[in-house]
Design a protein that fits this description.
Elements: H1 3-20, H2 25-38, H3 44-47, H4 54-71, H5 74-86, H6 90-107, H7 110-128, H8 133-147, H9 155-166, H10 178-194, H11 213-228, H12 234-250, H13 255-268, H14 274-280, H15 283-302, H16 304-312, H17 319-334, H18 339-357, H19 362-373, H20 383-387, H21 389-392, H22 396-421
Helix pairs in contact: 1-2, 1-15, 2-15, 4-12, 4-13, 4-14, 5-6, 5-7, 6-7, 6-8, 6-10, 7-8, 7-11, 8-10, 9-18, 9-19, 10-22, 12-13, 15-18, 16-18, 17-18, 17-19, 18-19, 19-22
Length: 424
């Protein structure tokens, strides 16, 4: 079997394993470079080289920096202040929760942000006599949209930048993702606030009273969390966070150096312990990131990416139509498997598609990054979607009904604005 077909076979098997999760996602990601090495497609050193990739380092370190924001109580303080201003008005509550969660997710782990806000949002729902279902899905969607706005907001952004880096091209800037990200975020929130609420599932409304065990449970969780917070360290967390984000955005120092410096400082200052630093890292994300980047190398070296790109662009001359097809396929895929893995699968294809059409790769890679972040149709599409599944008591169709119009809306926004900001 030709090398390019071997690579595509490994890719197909990996996609099936990602979809079915018969073995853990991280294990599937590990087996990819193992397979490429055993078959001689890549040398062992090449297959496992991405474990030291700068984007892997950046995201690992930023998980730790973000944890300091949660452990010192800053994220919770911001959230509670916002929801307090909303009072008992359902629309205002949903709007403010989405804004705060989305903005925090642009700079912190969107997974960590959602974990922190779920009990806060449920407590708000009980106090305002609103069904938690009305708040939790918008919360998850906002976390995904917010992550689109910066380089560190979501792993797919780092993956497409790595593809550009590997090709010797200038990667997207720290805030460059916001050119499309802010548009999606603002219009997405406006849609959810004005029209989207009618597609949200109805649920039991639990009013605030002393006999409400769910309410008491939320209060108890809040009290325990409050006791564990290191609020005396909050000022350190703020200073370190602002310094690191500024250093990254203005490129005072290299991105991996800035991220690792931040991770070291939040531990040194006592914002988090060493054990909490290790626990804060989403190791599944790191393993997916590092393991699947070797697939990108293999697809490029063997010509498998070119083969797929040629089939994808066959009989299609319009770059906009190709972008639409690539975006659609990416969205469908990422709604049923890890968005990090999906980005790693499609990034080399995006590069090859651009080459086949003689176009700039930037619009195609930004399209892939946007598509993998905007996945609202299933509970397995993103970690935020999965996290709210249990607390909200949602089913599969709840996501489809609430997210379908939003998914189409983002698709249209991407096709309109991506070519404007990053011409073909």
């Amino acid at each position: 079997m030709p090398p390019e077909m071997q690579v595509l076979l490994i890719l197909l098997i990996a996609a099936v394993l990602f979809f079915t999760e018969v073995i853990p996602l991280a294990v599937t990601a590990i087996l990819v470079p193992v397979s490429l090495s055993l078959l001689g497609i890549l040398e062992a050193g090449e297959a496992f080289a991405h474990w030291g990739n700068k984007w892997v380092i950046i995201f690992m370190a930023m998980f730790m920096v973000g944890e300091a924001m949660f452990r010192t109580g800053l994220a919770q303080k911001i959230g509670k202040a916002a929801v307090k201003a909303a009072g008992n008005r359902e629309g205002t509550i949903i709007f403010l929760v989405m804004v705060v969660v989305g903005v925090l997710s642009a700079f912190l782990s969107n997974t960590g942000t959602v974990v922190v806000f779920v009990p806060i949002a449920m407590g708000i729902a009980y106090r305002a006599s609103i069904s938690p279902k009305k708040i939790l899905l918008p919360l998850a969607f906002a976390a995904s949209m917010g992550g689109m706005m910066t380089l560190i907001g979501t792993p797919p952004n780092g993956i497409v930048n790595d593809a550009l880096d590997s090709a010797g091209l200038t990667p997207f800037g720290f805030f460059e993702f916001a050119w499309i990200g802010i548009i999606v975020f603002v219009i997405g929130i406006a849609y959810m606030g004005l029209l989207g609420t009618r597609f949200l599932p109805e649920g039991e409304v639990k009013k605030e009273n002393k006999d409400n065990p769910a309410r008491e449970g939320e209060e108890r969780k809040g009290e325990i969390a409050q006791e564990d917070l290191r609020q005396d360290k909050m000022v350190y967390a703020v200073i370190i966070f602002v310094f690191i984000i500024s250093a990254m955005a203005l490129e005072w120092i290299p991105l991996p150096t800035a991220a690792m410096l931040g991770a070291a400082l939040v531990i040194i200052t006592g914002c988090i312990t060493m054990e909490e630093a290790f626990q804060s890292v989403s190791w599944t994300t790191i393993f997916l990131f590092a393991g699947m980047l070797s697939m990108s190398d293999a697809m490029e070296v063997t010509g498998a990416a070119v083969l797929v790109a040629e089939r994808l662009t066959e009989n299609i001359e319009s770059p906009l139509v190709v972008l639409a097809v690539l975006f659609f396929i990416t969205v469908v895929t990422t709604n049923f498997m890890s968005n990090t893995a999906t980005a790693a699968l499609f990034a080399p294809i995006g590069m090859a598609v651009a080459s086949a059409l003689g176009c700039s790769p930037y619009p195609f890679l930004m399209g892939i990054a946007t598509a993998t972040s905007c996945c609202f149709l299933t509970p397995v599409a993103t970690p935020p979607n999965t996290i709210v599944l249990g607390p909200g008591g949602f089913n599969f169709m709840d996501y489809m009904k609430a997210g379908a119009v939003l998914q189409v809306l983002v698709f249209l926004l991407a096709l309109i604005f991506i070519p404007l900001f990053w011409p073909f």
